[in-house]
Design brief:
Number of helices: 12
Order of helices and strands: EHHHEHEEHHHEEHEEEHHEHEH
Structural class: alpha+beta
Number of strands: 11
Distance between the termini: 15 Å
Radius of gyration: 21 Å
């Protein structure tokens, strides 16, 4: 079994640095990006655009700027051989404002965070009436999901949603690269005090002017919805879209169109939703074939250095 992982667009190829042009990269905070709401609210464009910050490695930037890390950090380090520390806050602002609840971790070289959001929320109204918004067995669901992938055997396909400069106008998912899964880290939990949990699980009834249980939050999880995975850089292929954009520097990017790998097949497209999903061998082979075609065009064009001679098996 294999998996897909959504990334936020980065103008230097997810190489562990701040974007070269943070203000110009409007794609990372677009509505169809990865965790776009968080990125839009937390991205400090003024800071990232400063000399000595733009284009610099995250660890150095963080050290010199009170621990600031761009909020797109989930996918920032996919192609970097360096590491940096990150303070992970909860998605709920009521919890995130308490610094003590934040999870301190290190994003390792050639690593990324992801999460299978489809498994985490209750979708049907019938089940919501019983469980609320969250499944009572969330942790078991997540364990089953990640146990499907074999280190050194499962392929991870990285992709950008519609917010990207290559296929965004066509409203198509863009495959940016693939690699072999190397490891999956242990799951983590936020240290949330009981009082806060109970406050979230209750709501104020204006009619009775009393607090009562909030059924939607009855199974509110403390689990951190972010799992770190690492991939094998020696088995990785990343398509040089940004290099082609910089090379052609215009609206009529014919060469770029030849190398782009989009998800056109309807059945495969279903595996590119909810940030991360699993994928069977047949869909995997179809995508590998598309990537192989792209690599042949790249070799013919001769625009970038020949670092793409990876055997796709």
């Amino acid at each position: 079994m294999h998996l897909t992982v959504r990334t936020a667009w980065h103008d230097s190829g997810w190489n562990g640095t701040v974007c070269k042009d943070p203000e110009g990269n409007v794609y990372c905070s677009g509505a169809h990006s990865l965790l776009s709401g968080r990125i839009e609210k937390r991205k400090d464009i003024a800071l990232e655009s400063k000399d000595g910050v733009a284009g610099k490695y995250i660890a150095k930037v963080s050290k010199e700027n009170n621990g600031y890390v761009p909020p797109c950090y989930w996918s920032l380090n996919i192609c970097s051989n360096k590491e940096f520390n990150v303070s992970q806050g909860h998605a709920f602002s009521a919890i995130n404002k308490n610094i003590d609840t934040r999870i301190q971790s290190t994003l390792k070289p050639y690593s990324f965070f992801t999460w299978p959001f489809r498994l985490s929320f209750v979708h049907s109204q019938k089940q919501k009436s019983k469980h609320g918004n969250y499944w009572p067995d969330l942790e078991k669901r997540i364990e089953r999901y990640f146990s499907k992938f074999e280190n050194g055997n499962s392929i991870v396909f990285f992709y950008a949603n519609y917010d990207n400069p290559v296929s965004g106008d066509d409203m198509k998912y863009l495959v940016t690269g693939c690699s072999l899964v190397k490891s999956v880290d242990d799951f983590t939990h936020f240290d949330i005090d009981d009082e806060t949990i109970e406050r979230i699980k209750s709501k104020w009834n204006r009619k009775t002017r009393k607090k009562e249980p909030n059924k939607k939050m009855k199974n509110f999880p403390t689990m951190n919805w972010a799992v770190q995975l690492s991939h094998d850089p020696k088995k990785a292929v990343f398509l040089p879209y940004q290099q082609y954009i910089d090379y052609e520097d215009g609206d009529d990017n014919e060469l770029l169109d030849e190398i782009k790998v989009t998800v056109d097949n309807a059945s495969i497209r279903n595996s590119f939703k909810y940030v991360s999903m699993d994928m069977d061998d047949d869909k995997c082979l179809h995508l590998l074939y598309q990537i192989r075609k792209s690599l042949k065009y790249i070799e013919e064009h001769g625009i970038v250095s020949n670092d793409y001679e990876v055997e796709l098996e």
